[in-house]
Amino acid sequence: MEIRDDTIDLLEILRIIRERSWIIVLITVMAIAVSGLVSFFFLDKVYQTSTTLMVSKTQSDSTNMLQYNDVLMSQKLVKTYSEIVKSNRVLDKVIQKLELDASAEELRKKITVNSVQDTEIIRISVEDIDPQYATDLANGTAVVFMGEVAEIMKMDNVQLIDPAKVPNDPVRPRPLLNMAIAGVLGLMISLGIIFLIEYLDNTVKSAEDIEGHIGLPVLGGIPDFE
User: Residue ranges of the domains in the chain?
Assistant: First the structure.
């Protein structure tokens, strides 16, 4: 009996979805269309570029090679480098160097600093709606940082590995991904709406509804005629 009840419940769910499938189609299509419209025509395109640097000590005079502890220390200093890059001391000089009409706080929101895994290399990334501005800011920040970190932390081996290049394609928005997410959300919302409508609908539609309401079996019915 439990299997039969489960089967009936599943068939009932499929019936509800089939009868109100137009709601699912309408809401899902609208969600995808609105997401595509906003992504293509209203959201600003954001470009990202980055520059990489290596920050370490010079080779040891006695062994003429980097000490292993120095390498480990350089890898653990990424958070420190990040704070230095985003410090007012560095950003104020970047503003002066590039003659920017912006505050240090505004630049700080555009810059991120990460380490290349298990290396002494750090990556300074910049995001902006202007690809050329992002590139100039990344390279300018790297140059100022190289001078400041050598003075602050006495790191005498700071090298620029890859300068930032002007990006051709934006990193955001991603219209196709946004539309896919909107489609899934539209499907979930529409299913919730049709089941809510079904839950609030207390009209009698079938013999099973009558049996469920009055607790008595249906002996007969009048068929529909055209």
Answer: 2-41+173-204, 47-162
